[in-house]
Amino acid sequence: xxxxxxxxxxxxxxxxxxxxxxxxxxxxxxxxxxxxxxxxxxxxxxxxxxxxxxxxxxxxxxxxxxxxxxxxxxxxxxxxxxxxxxxxxxxxxxxxxxxxxxxxxxxxxxxxxxxxxxxxxxxxxxxxxxxxxxxxxxxxxxxxxxxxxxxxxxxxxxxxxxxxxxxxxxxxxxxxxxxxxxxxxxxxxxxxxxxxxxxxxxxxxxxxxxxxxxxxxxxxxxxxxxxxxxxxxxxxxxxxxxxxxxxxxxxxxxxxxxxxxxxxxxxxxxxxxxxxxxxxxxxxxxxxxxxxxxxxxxxxxxxxxxxxxxxxxxxxxxxxxxxxxxxxxxxxxxxxxxxxxxxxxxxxxxxxxxxxxxxxxxxxxxxxxxxxxxxxxxxxxxxxxxxxxxxxxxxxxxxxxxxxxxxxxxxxxx
Length: 414
Fold this sequence. Notes:
By secondary structure, this protein is of the alpha/beta class. The protein folds into 3 domains: 1-26, no CATH class; 27-154, Rossmann fold; 158-344 and 363-402, Dihydrodipicolinate Reductase, domain 2 (2-Layer Sandwich). The chain contains 16 helices and 15 strands. It has helices at residues 3-11, 22-25, 44-53, 68-78, 86-90, 107-116, 131-143, 154-157, 159-169, 202-210, 227-230, 238-241, 244-253, 343-353, 361-380, 398-402; strands spanning 34-39, 58-64, 81-83, 97-100, 120-123, 148-150, 176-183, 262-269, 280-288, 291-297, 301-306, 309-314, 317-320, 384-387, 392-393. Helix 7 packs antiparallel against helix 15 (361-380) and helix 9 packs across helix 13. The longest helix has 20 residues, at 361-380. It is globular. The model is unreliable at 1-27 (pLDDT under 50).
């Protein structure tokens, strides 16, 4: 019933008063909700869709996915429209924002297309396939005044992560001189044997799934984990795909990466047999200005070490060199880190109010660039130097410079 007709009807029923729900006219009314398109609804994308349904201000209206069963199945749940080509979704005027949970090599191209279409974007990690993509993404979102939320959910879902980073920033461990970061390792294997494309994907779906990457034959391991993480055409592996989480905690808890030139050196293994060909077994030794950073495979942790002791933040908990460090009262001032109890609601509120969400694009670029520099160092077997303020290599070799970007397969562009 339209508002005008509703008021007329209400005026005729004064003899029988009733309570009008606040949702009819309030901020939760359908016309006030943020409309959401979901791009990539398998695996993590499906989980993000479920989470979005619990955000009162959000209304999912469309899906895009290369697999027919995924896009149509999720679209049916929200009574929205399903698309094979996300660009058709972005052409709609009635969609406010998109949630991007596709394979990593399409994150930035899709996010950039969304920003240019005047839509805000929640983008899963890792960020770009290259440093050049990261820089372009940040530039284009700024030019279009588009809201960005990075899929580093621990900033919201794990409040101990906030506590650890806040305590480090306010000096609980003293001046930080060393940071240790561990992330799960990559792996070897994967079938290289070409097999028929499944009907659920189809030729057109596979063309869309490959997107801006070089066209390669379909194999049983290419379009699913671990192929989506461990094939160099689609990713730089867990250096970024999982490293995004503990490295994000590093930049949230410290600005060491902005304190001076970044110098990266280390070793790693690049498998030469099988489908998976990203760096694994890495051992990186990095200088962030005067701060030492050690990055290696392991669990998922970030340890800040200072003159007064250390605080370690993990997804499942927080610990310290001595218990008193965790009893320091968090400060409450303009420098206090933003607290967010719900990552998805935080994004939707950002879209509605044009405010900056808790996981910013600036921080996403900072952490992902470190992963990219590690990949360059291992693959070129050289020491890589980076200016984090000018966002450029320092005295690079031709080989290092060449790895700053990769060509996109036509017709994809940034």
